[in-house]
Amino acid sequence: QVQLVESGGGLVQAGGSLRLSCAASGMVFSLHTMGWYRQAPGKQRELVAEISSGGSTNYADSVKGRFTISRDNAKKMVYLQMNSLKPEDTAVYYCRGRGFWGQGTQVTVSS
Fold it and tell me: Which residue spans within 26-75 are E strands per DSSP?
């Protein structure tokens, strides 16, 4: 079955950086768009960034210029490099692919 396992979350000060990783298994990874989503307390889950099988990317306006999504098809990994983090980036970050979700990783940005 499809499994997505996120890692790399943590506590960081505003202006800092984190790199999230998502390891995929049970799917033909290279064929699928992969996405990062986030959900803050009391808010709906929202798309942060996605990358197509061909490498095209799409970002939420709130993270453009600060976050970068990338993928390594050989390793079945998708990454989210997050720079210039803000307190409003605090959320649980989820990896999504082929309609499946990972368990999420907490990102907390202190002011």
Answer: 34-39, 46-51, 57-59, 67-72
Span 28-71, pLDDT tens digits: 999 999 999 999 999 999 999 999 999 999 999 999 999 999 99
Please report which helix (H) or strand (E) contains residue 25, including its range: strand 18-25
Characterize the bridge pairing of strands 67-72 and 57-59. Answer: unpaired
Contact 81, 70 (CB under 8 A): yes
Asked whether the beta carbons of 17 and 8 are under 8 A apart, the reply is no
CA distance to 38, 87, 105, per residue, from 101 (Å): 11, 24, 12
pLDDT score of 94: 98
**CB burial of residue 37 (10 Å; 0-12, 13-18, 19+):** buried
One DSSP character per residue, 62-109 reads TTTTTEEEEEETTTTEEEEEE-S--GGG-EEEEEEETTEE---EEEEE
